[in-house]
Amino acid sequence: MTYNRIAVYGHRGWVSSAIFAALVQSGAPIKVLYRAGSDVSDLPEGVVSVEVDVENQQAVESALQDVDIVISLVGVEGITRQHGLVKAIPQTNVQLFVPSDLALRWDEQGLRVPANQLKSEVEEAAKKAGIPTTIVLPGYFAESLMSTGMIGVDVLGNRIVFTGDSEHQVVNMCTREYVAASYAAIFATTPISQLQNRVIGLSEIQATGADVAKALEKRHNAPPTIFRHSLEEADRQMQLRLDRGRPLAMAWYCRKLWGSGSVPRLIGSDIWEIQDYSKKSLEELIVDGKLVAYREASPAFLEAVEETFY
Question: Which intervals hold domain NmrA-like (predicted)?
């Protein structure tokens, strides 16, 4: 079996740590690029680590000479640093760049959210530099969708917000575990020529709001409390938050996408399936309580989310 040589930039976050672990477990040669001050003391045996300032193009070029694929998994704070990778990659042997995305293909409204616009600019810069890319789109993370209330589902509180027609429209979601397994399946051994310039969607669970409500009722032995918002209200709330710098603009936008039936379209038609993988079901996550908690949120964030249930 021929493995691709992979460099990972950003390996300690909620999603990135799981993806990194799956890539290591795949058997592919992994190199971690890390910033000064980052803790790499607990890296698995056999993983190479290189301290790199991505603004130092010569240093990045040197670190990437024996790499086939660069996978960036940085969070919001690191999006713009990816431009350093884009500048260096054309001078190396790298054949594929996977920028940090892990969401949907945003429409014009979605690009009003600053982080989404910054991601789009990185992808556009890579194209202008002639760098082959692969974009991975899992839709919504099940953990974010259902354990924070951000998208209008409160599993513990047995509440759900139907936005527009989300009661009957399908939302596409993946668990962190499934996304991690998908990265390993896609990038460890697949010939790079088969991956270049693709937008790959992931789909573990597809469910309507009514499906979620039924699972909530089964878990709690009582119907969930249901709230309803129009698509126009979601638009208004999103713009209000963008204008005033308030949190959750993205949450209202994602609720609107679900309610308008846009989510399946925005992960595309090129869906990657992992061979012999047992996907989680809605019943496992909600009824059986196998939903993993999302990253820890601040009290202010949780208070802002609570205000959206009315």
Answer: 4-222
Tell whether 144 is covered by a domain: yes
Is residue 197 domain-resident? yes
Same domain, 114 and 208: no
Q: 136: closest CA among 100, 86, 95?
A: 100
Spell out the SS3 assignment of 77-137.
Answer: HHCCCHHHHHHHHHHCCCCEEECCCCCCCCCCCHHHCHHHHHHHHHHHHHHHCCCCEEEEE
Burial (Cβ within 10 Å: 0-12, 13-18, ≥19) of residue 199: middle
The residue ranges of DSSP E strands in 192-257, in sequence order, are 198-201, 205-208, 225-229
3-state secondary structure of 107: coil
Tell me, what's the pLDDT at 69?
A: 98
Domain of residue 283, residue span: 140-173+204-261+276-306
Please count the structural domains in the chain. 2
**Residue-wise pLDDT tens digits, 212-262:** 999 999 999 999 999 999 999 999 999 999 999 888 999 999 999 999 999
C-alpha–C-alpha distance, residues 7 and 294, integer Å? 26
> Looking at the DSSP assignment, which residues form a beta bridge with residue 271?
201
- In the chain, DSSP finds a helix count (H) and a strand count (E) of 12, 13
Res. 98: pLDDT tops 90? yes
For residue 295, what pLDDT band results from cuts at 50, 70 and 90?
confident
Query: Any residues with CB less than 8 A from the CB of 37 and at least 6 apart, and which?
Result: none
Residues 43 and 191 in one domain: yes
Same domain, 24 and 163: no
97 near 86, Cβ under 8 Å? yes
